[in-house]
Design brief:
By secondary structure, the chain is an alpha/beta fold. The protein has 10 helices and 14 strands. Strand 12 and strand 13 form a beta hairpin. Helix 4 packs parallel to helix 5 and helix 9 crosses helix 10. The chain is globular. It starts with a strand and ends with a strand.
């Protein structure tokens, strides 16, 4: 089973426009409104591939059953969240269909107390005992220190030493998590280059990713680059996979779907290069769908057949 942690869930409002003009009135062709969050998207994608998922994290429910709870219950997705005061933040995504570009305006979210943090750490440790893999995804809400994911890794490993752990985060949060040596990290290109102060050049990215695995700060490093593909580095090898050619209908949840594909391959004992094939295929299937909608297994399977991985180290 995969347990996913969504520390800062949200309601995604995705507006689809054509030829978006900054500073002008733009009318959407249609819109998608759904409760989500990076960890929730990972869980949905992992289940779409045929795996078993469990969702946890904080839920800003204002003392009532939240939109997130209702959405997951409707999907029959197993879940247990730590309820906190406040409402779910809203993340507005404006997808320009003409240029396949996404503009995002994301609220920060509510504030979490130390007591709530402790409750979630306990829940993570308990869930890890029943899981093959744990993923920690996304930003942290106000009141939560950047080392939260590092503490979550420590709690999970103390309770379940065999449970592998993935992190998809940025900035200080990812930097702090590396001190706990996760088994897999999956930043995108801009996040990775900003954290290490390197140019967005293939050689520099592979060098920095390989250095992380060689130093033991991460077991594997996947850097996603959108339509230009993705790199995956281990201590003894590194791979590149180009992105499949698809009609892009949204960029939302693509990275989450890629992480789910990587984990799905890992839990099934696939060869390292197959991890990247599964991840890339699932990301390609997902960008072919609107909003945060996750690609389907059969769509990913069709893309998988046309992909190839190059060993670059």
């Amino acid at each position: 089973m995969l347990t996913t942690v969504t520390a800062n869930p949200c309601v995604d409002l995705t507006l689809f426009v054509r030829d978006f003009k900054k500073g002008a009135t733009n009318r959407p062709v249609f819109s998608v409104h759904e409760a989500a969050g990076k960890g929730v998207n990972v869980a949905r994608a992992y289940r779409a591939l045929g795996g078993e998922s469990f969702c946890t994290g904080f839920d800003f429910s204002e003392g009532e059953t939240s939109l997130l709870e209702r959405a997951l219950a409707a999907e029959s997705m197993p879940h247990e969240f730590v309820p906190v005061s406040g409402k779910l933040r809203t993340c507005v995504k404006i997808f320009d269909e003409t240029n396949a570009e996404m503009t995002e305006v994301n609220e920060s979210g509510g504030e979490v107390s130390p007591r709530d943090e402790a409750a979630l750490l306990s829940l993570i440790a308990s869930a890890a005992e029943k899981s093959e893999f744990l993923s920690l995804s996304g930003s942290l809400p106000r009141g939560v220190s950047p080392d939260f994911y590092a503490r979550a890794i420590a709690a999970a490993r103390a309770a379940a030493p065999r449970c592998r752990i993935a992190v998809d985060a940025a900035g200080e949060t990812l930097g702090a998590a590396l001190a706990a040596a996760p088994d897999l990290i999956k930043p995108n290109e801009s996040e990775f280059c900003a954290l290490f102060g390197i140019p967005a050049e293939p050689g520099e990215i592979v060098k920095a990713a390989s250095a992380l695995t060689e130093s033991g700060k991460a077991g594997a490093v996947c850097v996603s680059m959108g339509e230009r593909g993705a790199y995956l580095a281990f201590r003894d090898a590194a791979y590149f996979c180009p992105a499949p050619r698809v009609t892009v209908r949204s960029l939302q949840a693509a990275g989450d779907a890629m992480l789910a594909g990587l984990i799905f391959a890992a839990t099934r004992g696939e060869a390292p290069e197959k991890w990247l094939l599964f991840g890339t295929a699932m990301a390609g299937a997902t960008v072919s769908r609107p909003g945060s909608e996750i690609g389907r297994r059969e769509e990913a399977k069709a893309l998988f057949a046309g992909l190839s991985v190059e060993k670059i180290r």
